[in-house]
Amino acid sequence: MGKVVMYGSVSVDGFVADEHDHPGPLFEWLTGGDVPLDETGVLKVSQTSYDYTRPYWDEIGATIVGRHVFDMTDGWDGTPPGGVDHVVVVTHRPKPEGWDPEAPFHFVDGVEAAVAKAQELVGDRVVEVAAGDVGGQVLAAGLIDEVRMDVVPVVFGSGKRNFGSVHAQHLLEDPDVVIQGNRVLHLRCRVRG
């Protein structure tokens, strides 16, 4: 099976969104450069960020998100973001009424089921877990292999925490990647086994 990676852009005080669920400047690094990150040309980053981010994005086979993120994005109109093949949505509710059954979205109940479904779908490719509540639940379940964070120089003071409502200590290895981009610091740490 491929790695399970928790990933997100985060403020220096550990938030993925403010108290109103807005990411504020957390994604500005994705539009503040000169190098197109994908074929749309909308996302443009520094060369340093491209060299770190693009190879990782190419490894991702599935992304796991919570129903809240799915609803906020209107399910990305049935097209997984960033060229990912599948999205696995953790939810206790049924698919939205009228949802296209051919769209590569899978609705499951619980984070363990989400990781199992994503790994089944992608084999040796990376399973990405969105930071926030679902990411924290997957970490607490002991299913995260690696944490990647794009740390943005902003302090929110309050909001949606990067690791959700995790209440126990989880040790990570020393960062094995620390890369400075424009208005972002890319970090990668493996989870201690």
UniProtKB/TrEMBL annotation:
Which Gene3D superfamilies is this protein grouped with? Dihydrofolate Reductase, subunit A
**Top-level taxon of origin:** Bacteria
One Pfam match, by short name? RibD_C
| Domain named Bacterial bifunctional deaminase-reductase C-terminal: residues | 4-171
Instruction: Please state what the protein is called.
Output: Dihydrofolate reductase family protein
Originating organism: Occultella gossypii
